[in-house]
Design brief:
This protein has 5 helices and 5 strands; from the N terminus they run H-E-H-E-H-E-E-E-H-H. With 155 residues, it is of the alpha/beta class. Helices cover 32% and strands 16% of the residues. The chain has a 5-stranded mixed β-sheet with strand order 2-1-3-5-4, with helices on both faces.
């Protein structure tokens, strides 16, 4: 890591470090979370901490196939109780959220829907699926995921 590069912490890390009420660039606490740049996609995984490197490589290949740039995507884990659909929307304003190995109820969505079925709630489209490790090993799961992703991101 170059020492001149900025270190970027996501909202989850900042919230866990400083509590729910922190300020960014001198903004009021009500608007502080809205200072993060808008993202097209939020990816929520069921990993307790960090995504393993080989799984992250698979995820990156999926995002590349969807023609998404890294600055358009935010990846987080559902290991914290503070990760809710509402917090994700308020923080990043994304239009789609992928749940890998995370049930919709785990992020506070008031509904359950089957894997690979697109579900719109509020201003966001959600896609629930098995964990990335399972998808990576199973050709039929990859196909189902790809067919669903094409509906969200026409490529």
């Amino acid at each position: 890591m170059n020492m001149n590069e900025p270190v970027i912490l996501n909202a989850t890390v900042l919230t866990e470090l400083y509590g729910k009420d922190f300020l960014i660039d001198g903004s009021s606490s009500e608007n502080s979370l809205k200072k993060f740049s808008k993202k097209k996609l939020a990816v929520v995984t069921g990993h307790p901490h960090q995504i393993p490197q080989h799984v992250n490589a698979f995820l990156q290949s999926i995002l590349t196939a969807c023609k998404l740039r890294s600055d358009e995507v935010v990846t987080t884990t559902a290991s914290s109780a503070s990760i809710t659909y509402d917090a994700i929307q308020q923080t990043w304003g994304n239009s789609a959220t992928l749940l890998f190995g995370v049930e919709p109820e785990a992020i506070g969505l008031p509904m359950h829907f089957p894997h690979f079925q697109l579900q719109t709630f509020g201003e966001c489209t959600y896609l629930s699926s098995p964990p990335l490790e399972e998808i990576e090993k199973d050709r039929s799961l990859k196909l189902q995921l790809w067919q669903s992703l094409q509906k969200i991101f026409p490529v």
